[in-house]
């Protein structure tokens, strides 16, 4: 039995219940020839005839009656198993593995996750902070909150908004630079916080490389969060994320947000997981929570795997 095709067996059961090929085809929502092909396949696999073919219809042989008895209740058991297993995905329970950057985790994601878990205590969350995309296709994570202007087209999700950046400095640094007679917008005369090679792909890093002499970069970091921390301590100027710096009283924005620095923020998952209840609940919740604190996009954007 374990070598038989379950679709062939399903057609056989439908045929025994419906009493005719046409009725079985309607019950299975397939065409007439599919039922005939499946029955022929099953008979070849078993090496025996299950039905005698007459002009008046099909009549089960003794072998067919034996198989019918052996399969009694099997389709009900399969349906019940499908319902029981499928039901797990509809419950708000289980684990969700989320990946994001340290900057986004601290500045916006952690408070939202705390509120989500209060609403859904049956869901266990695992947070992986990494500046590189984990492979959601290999299920290294279930949900990704990632800054990107080119999200992977193998994933599905929505653009939450954009992350804007501007030039900032600490108030203490600016006060000291005024005493030294340095004009605020004389970029080459100031000291800067830069990004190391791991973040060299960011537009902020490119701008610094083009605008600021290398010897004026006082410190390089591998995190936008560390860049804000260093700027706050007065080590120099830096292009910082506005949602990180604007509410910090020790920092002062020097320029308006530069559109060249804008980066889209995406909430992504694997297409096989998007309709799982707990994943759907989390992504919908995060979309509502996070869009309110981001610069809006021109229009809603949805990316889907092709």
Automatic annotation (TrEMBL):
Q: Which GO terms describe its molecular function?
A: DNA-binding transcription factor activity; sequence-specific DNA binding
Question: SUPFAM superfamilies of this UniProt entry?
Answer: Periplasmic binding protein-like II, Winged helix' DNA-binding domain
Q: Which residues form the signal peptide?
A: none
Superkingdom per UniProt: Bacteria
UniProt entry tagged with the keyword Ubl conjugation = no
A biological process (GO) of this protein is: DNA-templated transcription
Start and end residues of each HTH lysR-type domain: 4-61
Q: Which Pfam families match?
A: HTH_1, LysR_substrate
InterPro entries, alphabetized: LysR-type_TF_proteobact-type, LysR_HTH_N, LysR_subst-bd, WH-like_DNA-bd_sf, WH_DNA-bd_sf
Keywords, A to Z, come to: DNA-binding, Transcription, Transcription regulation
Similarity-based family: Belongs to the LysR transcriptional regulatory family.
Quote the protein name from its UniProt record.
Answer: DNA-binding transcriptional regulator, LysR family
């Amino acid at each position: 039995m374990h070598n038989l095709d379950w679709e062939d067996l399903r057609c056989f059961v439908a045929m025994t219940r419906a009493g005719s090929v046409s009725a079985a085809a309607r019950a299975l929502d397939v065409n007439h020839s599919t039922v005939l092909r499946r029955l022929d396949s099953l008979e070849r696999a078993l090496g025996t005839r299950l039905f005698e073919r007459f002009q008046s219809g099909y009549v089960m042989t003794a072998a067919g009656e034996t198989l019918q008895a052996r399969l009694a209740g099997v389709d009900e058991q399969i349906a019940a198993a499908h319902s029981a297993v499928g039901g797990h995905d509809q419950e708000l329970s289980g684990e969700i593995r989320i990946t994001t950057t340290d900057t986004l985790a601290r500045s916006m994601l952690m408070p939202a996750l705390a509120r989500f878990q209060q609403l859904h205590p049956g869901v266990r969350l695992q947070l992986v902070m990494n500046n590189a995309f984990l492979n959601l296709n290999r299920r290294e994570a279930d949900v990704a909150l990632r800054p990107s202007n080119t999200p992977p087209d193998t994933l599905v999700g929505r653009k939450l908004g954009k992350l804007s950046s501007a030039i900032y400095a600490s108030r203490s640094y600016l006060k000291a630079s005024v005493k030294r007679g340095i004009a605020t917008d004389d970029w080459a005369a100031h000291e800067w916080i830069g990004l190391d090679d791991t973040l060299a792909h960011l537009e902020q890093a490119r701008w610094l490389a083009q605008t600021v002499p290398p010897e004026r970069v006082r410190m390089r970091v591998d995190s936008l969060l560390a860049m804000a921390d260093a700027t706050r301590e007065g080590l120099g100027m830096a292009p910082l994320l506005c949602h990180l710096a604007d509410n910090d009283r020790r920092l002062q924005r020097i320029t308006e947000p530069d559109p060249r620095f804008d980066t889209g923020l995406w909430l992504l998952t694997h297409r096989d997981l998007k309709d799982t209840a707990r994943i759907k609940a989390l992504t919908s919740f995060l979309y509502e929570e996070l869009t309110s604190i981001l610069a809006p996009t021109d229009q809603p954007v949805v990316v889907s795997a092709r």
